[in-house]
Specification:
Blueprint (H helix, E strand, L loop, with lengths): L1 E3 L2 E4 L4 E4 L2 E3 L3 H12 L5 E2 H8 L8 H14 L9 E4 L3 E4 L4 E2 L1 H10 L16 H15 L4 E6 L6 H13 L6 E6 L11 H11 L4 H11 L6 H4 L13 H14 L2 E6 L6 H12 L6 E7 L9 H11 L4 E4 L5 H12 L8 H9 L3 H13 L3 E3 L8 E3 L12 H12 L3 H10 L5 E3 H8 L3 H14 L3 E8 L5 E7 L2 H9 L3 H18 L8 H11 L2 H17 L3 H15 L4 H31 L1
Parallel strand pairs: 9-12, 9-13, 10-11, 11-12
Antiparallel strand pairs: 1-2, 1-8, 2-3, 3-4, 5-7, 6-7, 14-15, 16-18, 17-18
């Protein structure tokens, strides 16, 4: 555990702690923080940080500002008077806080996260020990007569249902035997049928082992809520049709007097207003009862006007509910999940790192990617039997696996909920690597930059597919916000779904806009322009831009960078016609020879000195 200030950087479990509480931090910001902490006290240049975290991939330097903003927010740091991360203008960053190793803190974290749960029969859940312990603590309060409302939030595939199922099995399996019933909100049903998840849960309640007692209470206290299948046995109740929420609250509280009642309501982002009002009423009542409402929802896909947002915020402020926001899995948790699925402790070299990087810790994505590499026979069993060990046929870093088909369909469903214009904005954003500035989207679509920025802000607020990540100060004195996709696989799907010709036009427009913005200083952005021209398949312009970038590197005495750019230009030349290729190779090989001699001479001089 690397300790600095009140924070602990747990490199084994890849998470950040503050005074015993885990702080949510996505994989890439964690990697940035880890590199800074492990190199505390010295200047880390932009190039060093980019090369360390994005090897063999060109990433725009402003992406670092995105993560620094996020880290400073998490750490409570001030850029003008830094306690942790100091910005060295135009050069890089320095971690200025004192860093120490604290082995005892790591032990305390392990106990706080409830490691003993891993040994239980409900150990199929991975990486959620801390959340499971918190739910069990809430359940103990419920057993003592304190009602609880808990919201479990997170994106698609993050593991909300798996956590709920494991917790439900634990509490139902105890000697006291809590009653657990579940209602599922369904997209589109909220507008058509009020109380849909509540009615489903009541149906399960009336079919439980306590059905006779439940039926008696509902018949007496809330007859309108008794399921129709039970009313057939009570003709006098068949005329009761109007749902009365207050009666149901009374009935549920009475049912929960003798035995704890866990009411699970899933996917509340699709719930009707009546269901949310009932949850609000249950949360605000003061009668002692052994009742827990356990609700899950996805922030994505919710309108900013959806009453769920206001309900949850109001209950949080009044301390009438608890929220568990599920973060991505840590790298060790991903490794554990892969080991369990493959049935072997020792994984093929590089598999966990490859899957972790591609999945960014999303459990559903982890398993989908694993199934995909098996289906594509990148990963095969050794021997003919089902108990043989798994091994890879080639290094994972060399594999181009794309997006798994089923996962791609899931992402497409998310995108289909957006309007056509919103989809086009995101598709244009995918033309930029990692993060995209609003001006680039405007250039690709040939639309007004202010309108595009407003559209991106709305997408960030409403969908969660992108998030605002900072701003660019442009040469003309204006500012342009830039945004990052919440997951790299979303960007990949958006990029691949576009026709090749449309993508190429967008790339060229972005490159030309760069040229306009930096008129007179084009060499400063020549490398970025080359990326766009190359993606468009415009080999001649890409080569010209790479040559300009190499000249700029030479002027800065960055000879290794110059050599890399010239070598890449030779790769570009392979796509040209024979005469053009030969002419370009002759020009570049001469320049490359000179720069290699310069590099060699500098190395010899360094040895002598």
């Amino acid at each position: 555990m690397n300790q600095f200030g009140s924070f602990g950087l747990d490199t084994s479990n890849e998470c950040l702690w503050r005074e015993g509480v885990q702080i949510e931090l996505a994989p890439k910001p964690f990697s940035v923080l880890r590199y800074l902490v492990e190199n505390a006290g010295r200047l880390i240049t932009h190039d060093e940080l980019l090369d360390a975290l994005w090897p063999a991939t060109y990433v725009q330097p402003q992406v670092l500002r995105t993560y620094m903003l996020e880290l400073r927010k998490v750490l409570g740091d001030d850029a003008s008077s830094p306690r942790f991360i100091q910005t060295i203008p135009k050069r890089g960053y320095r971690f200025v806080a004192a860093v120490s190793q604290d082995a005892d803190a790591a032990v305390e974290v392990a106990h706080a996260s409830g490691d003993s749960i891993l040994g239980s029969k409900f150990s199929e859940l991975v990486g959620r020990d801390q959340e499971l312990v918190r739910l069990q603590t809430q359940a103990q309060l419920v057993a003592g007569g304190q009602r609880q409302v808990v919201f479990i939030t997170g994106g698609a595939g993050i593991g909300k249902t798996s956590l709920v199922n494991t917790f439900s099995a634990l509490v139902a399996g105890k000697s006291s035997g809590a009653i657990v019933v579940c209602g599922q909100s369904v997209e589109g049903f909220g507008k058509e049928e009020s109380y849909y998840p509540i009615v489903e849960a009541l149906g399960q309640l009336c079919g439980s082992a306590d059905q006779e007692r439940v039926r008696g209470i509902l018949s007496r206290v809330a007859p309108a809520w008794l399921p129709l299948t039970w009313r057939d046995h009570e003709p006098a109740l068949q005329t009761v049709t109007r749902h009365t929420p207050g009666d149901l609250c009374d009935a549920l509280e009475e049912i929960a007097q003798d035995k704890a009642l866990i009411l699970v309501l899933e996917d509340l982002q699709w719930a009707d207003e009546a269901t949310l009002e009932l949850i609000s009423a249950l949360a605000r009542r003061r009668t002692p009862t052994r009742l827990m409402v356990l609700a899950t929802y996805r922030p994505e896909g919710r309108s900013t006007e959806h009453p769920l947002k206001a309900l949850k915020q109001d209950l949080v402020v009044r301390q009438l509910c608890t929220e568990l926001a599920l973060p991505p899995l840590s790298k060790p948790a991903v490794k554990q999940l892969l080991s369990r699925r493959l049935g072997q402790e020792k994984l093929p070299p590089g598999l966990d790192g490859f899957i972790y990087q591609r999945s960014e810790g999303n459990p559903l994505f982890v398993l989908s990617l694993l199934e995909h590499v098996i289906a594509e026979r990148f990963l095969v069993r050794k021997g003919a039997t089902d108990d043989g060990q798994w091994e890879q046929l080639a290094p994972f870093q060399e594999m181009e696996i794309g997006v798994p088909h089923e996962l791609g369909k899931l992402i497409e469903l998310e995108l289909d909920r957006l309007s056509i214009s919103e989809q086009r904005v995101l598709e244009a954003g995918s033309l930029m690597p990692i993060a995209f500035p609003a001006w680039a989207v405007a250039a690709a679509l040939e639309e007004n930059a202010d309108e595009i920025e407003n559209a991106c802000d709305e997408l960030a607020r409403r969908t969660g597919l992108v998030q605002r990540a900072g701003h660019d100060d442009l040469p003309d004195g204006t500012r342009s916000d830039f945004y990052a996709f919440s997951h790299g696989l979303y960007r990949e799907v958006l990029y691949q779904r576009q026709a090749t010709a449309r993508r190429a036009k967008g790339h060229v427009r972005i490159a030309e806009r760069l040229r306009e913005l930096f008129a007179g200083r084009e060499d400063n952005v020549a490398r970025e322009m080359a990326v766009q021209y190359e993606a468009a398949g415009n080999w001649h312009r890409a080569a010209q831009a790479l040559k300009a970038a190499a000249r700029h590197a030479h002027e800065r005495n960055a000879y290794l960078e110059e050599a890399q750019l010239l070598e890449h230009t030779l790769c570009i030349a392979e796509n040209m016609s024979e005469p053009d290729r030969r002419a370009l190779e002759q020009e570049i090989e001469g320049e490359l020879h000179l720069v290699r001699m310069t590099i060699g001479g500098n190395e010899e001089q360094a040895k002598v000195s």
